[in-house]
Amino acid sequence: MDAYALDLSDGQRVLEIGTGTGYNAALLCHRLGAANVVSIDIDLTLVDQAREHLAELGYATLLEVGDGADGVPGAAPYDAILATAAVDHIPHAWIEQLRPGGIILTDLRGGFSGAMVRLRKIDGARSRAAATITSQPSCRCAGRRATRCARA
Question: Which of 74, 76, 82, 130 has its CA 20 to 30 A from that of 152?
């Protein structure tokens, strides 16, 4: 996932959906400061490991265990939401927790499979967003578990 597509500025707050190893959270902490990064994952073991990895780097950011579709309302609002897992729809909770003008960046499953979606919340609306869908280059390894892309 390309965190640079979020076009972040100093002091902005980001919610990452899918903590995983903590790699993206570490990049975001480095850019924005640990106090401005919140990450959630459904897997307690991954969150604990990510917490250790981030602590080794000197970052003590808020890591939550839970369903990413619910976001983390207690730490909202966010200037950006970065989902590292593909979704088949944009959860309403994400739009609710996003500041006006904020961005959601995620991959879509289903008919748009492999498409990165960048949404911007418009007009301060609580439930409206404008979307840009960008197809990613096709890859022979798409849909397969691989440690290295066949194109590389």
Answer: 82
Omega before 73 cis (within 30°)?
no
- Which whole-number Å values give the CA distances from 133 to 55, 69, 108, 111, in the listed order? 35, 20, 9, 12
pLDDT tens readout for residues 41-91: 999 999 999 999 999 999 999 999 999 999 999 999 999 999 988 888 899
Right CATH number for 8-135 from 3.40.50.150, 2.60.40.60, 1.20.120.1730, 3.40.50.720?
Answer: 3.40.50.150
